[in-house]
Amino acid sequence: MEPIIKVIIAEDNKDAQDIMASFLKPLQQFEVIGVADNGESLLDVNLNLKPELIIADINMPKLNGIDAIASCLKVNPDLKFIYTTAYEKYAVKAFDLNAVDYLIKPIKKERFYVALEKAKGLLDYKKEKTILTIQMDRTSYFIQNKDIICIEKENRKTIIHTATQKYETNDSLDSILSRLSNNFFRTHRSFIVNIDYISHITAEGETYLAHLRNYPHPAYVSKLRISELYKEIS
């Protein structure tokens, strides 16, 4: 059975909400887990429900869809999103933000399904990643995701730690995270951790420490990320 893709519909028009929900209902791989009727509400449901896909109207009250999605991506960087609007003038801006697709209202079912297939392909690709490739000293290394315990930024270098070896690269943490599978989490501006290796978490002043199996040093966890990390683990 294929994994379920969790979807939020962000749309201030109730009829449009119902139409998109009806399009999604017969599709077994997609599940609507929440609805937002304005941009500020979308920020809350994104934080609390952690969707994989948001279908967002651009012209929403309180906070427009473009700005709302930009904020959602800060806490959910793997998020995929599709924009809907009655106005074609926003298309360039939407694709600048790496939107999966851009749908003009009234939305046709066939066109809606094309956009969903694009999103599904991108999400499946993310889930299937098993090997991280890096360059080090003019050599390519192929590291199994399951062997990576954590990744940290140390001065200008990025260090990838496994139980038996460490690798140095000039790649940024953001670049590496985009090439990893979904069990990796950005806990801090200087750390990515494999949540499968977390044994326990302790509080240390304003910061938290994630203690890792098979690794002697804890990883920092920002207080802004701790709640989301607990949700990922559970």
Automatic annotation (TrEMBL):
Looking up Pfam families in the UniProt record yields:
LytTR (PF04397), Response_reg (PF00072)
Question: Where would I find the HTH LytTR-type domain in this sequence?
Answer: 132-234
Q: Which InterPro entries match?
A: CheY-like_superfamily (IPR011006), LytR-like (IPR046947), LytTR_DNA-bd_dom (IPR007492), Sig_transdc_resp-reg_receiver (IPR001789)
Task: List every position bearing 4-aspartylphosphate.
Answer: D57
Phosphoprotein among keywords: yes
Keyword Nucleotide-binding on entry: no
Select a single GO molecular function from the record's annotations and give it.
DNA binding
Q: Which residues form the Response regulatory domain?
A: 6-120
Q: Which UniProt keywords apply?
A: Phosphoprotein
Which PANTHER family does the UniProt record give?
A: STAGE 0 SPORULATION PROTEIN A HOMOLOG (PTHR37299:SF1), TRANSCRIPTIONAL REGULATOR-RELATED (PTHR37299)
Record protein name field: Transcriptional regulator
**Could you tell me which species this protein originates from?**
Halalkalibacter wakoensis JCM 9140
